[in-house]
Amino acid sequence: MATNKKMPTIITSRIIDLDVFRGFAVFGIFMVNILVMNAAFTFRGEWEAEQTAWWSEVSFFILETFFYSKFFVIFSLLFGMGVALQIQRAKEKGKFSNLFFLRRFGSLFLFGVLHILFIWSGDILHLYGAYGFLLLLAFRCSAKVLMWLAILVFIFPFYEEVFNWFISFSNLDYQSPLAEINKEKMIQLKQEGSYLNGIKLRIKEYLFAMEFFYTGIGPVALTMMLLGGYLVKKGLLSAIDIWLKRSQPFLIISLVVLLTYRFFLLYYIVPSGVVEHGSIISFVLMSIYYLSDISLSLMYLWLIAFFLRRNTFSKLVSPLQYAGRMAFTNYILQSVIGYVIMRSFGLYHMFSVVDCILIVVITFSLQVILSKIWLTYYKFGPLEWMWRCISYWKVLPISKSV
User: Which member of 14, 209, 288, 389 has the greatest number of CB atoms within 10 A?
Assistant: First the structure.
């Protein structure tokens, strides 16, 4: 690789809050992903209906209220903040390079595609890589413009129409290939199918979930990335303590109001069936629903930042920084562990929701411990190091002894 004077952020300049946030996000993402790893998207409702014990119902309620649609929001915000911070630092040092960021986002997109093909179809990295190119343009704007862009992306009402137009234009049959596979065949393929059949199945699973990715997760993720850039430009990272004091009343009020609305929507409006899907009212109701998820996600970050500044609680949350510094590696490793458990051991569709939660708690606890041990000897996680080498287009030292 050619030499380049551009060097990565050194460990001493890291912002601990962001590492802890990332570790927390990786934990929550795995808590949601393990359920899909255990039961296919197409048969998720049927699997949930089979969990009739009271502790299962409580578990689903906790996951629905505190996990679903919360942690990719946090991860997206942190991704936007990380990109904005890296661009800011590069410009301050006079070393900004479009080629560097093109390699960085292009390789992330490729990592995501390989993740889909060879390990798990629920990858989010390819989406982040693709959005990275948009952020490279958007982050040239002022903080005020970024805030307006975030609002416009969030309230844009025609994502489904654009998606349907694309499907019609491309004549892509994205649902039938997976929908034609019944539950018994799906279990057989997951437990006993060849690796090649597994790749074909993951492609079908990804295609089936395309609408959810690009009309649901995608817009919210991009909104949070733009918000992350806005916060960096407004100097949040150098004034977190001030933000903690000023934002508390607003977060508490918005959280109470939006969570009340969320329960009303989920347990009264939706079951009543009075709102037609695709209508303007439906769009408005769902937009407010997403706002409640965002509000709770921001409250999580507020609480973690608050705990980090209290000696008693700091000992509980600060270990998350080790998993957060290796977020890329740990995210992919969770997929590998899920694949081994569900496929190699033939346990797909065999776990209850409580089993899945236990798997996540045990696995993530081990990840925190192993990440700390790894970072004792190495500067970066293995995939973080590989991504950096590609981004900087040179082989960087990884051992702390170098």
Answer: 209
Triad 307, 220, 145: Cα angle to 5°? 90
Neighbouring CB atoms inside 10 A of 271's CB total 9
> For the chain, what are the domain ranges?
11-392
Burial (Cβ within 10 Å: 0-12, 13-18, ≥19) of residue 232: buried
Contact 275, 269 (CB under 8 A): yes
Partners of 399 in beta bridges: 378
pTM for this predicted structure: 0.91
Give 23-77 pLDDT, tens digit per residue: 999 999 999 999 999 988 788 888 888 888 899 999 999 998 899 989 999 999 9
DSSP track, 276-293 = PTTSHHHHHHHHHHHHHH
Residue 7: CB partners within 8 Å, gap ≥ 6? 392, 396
SS3 235: coil
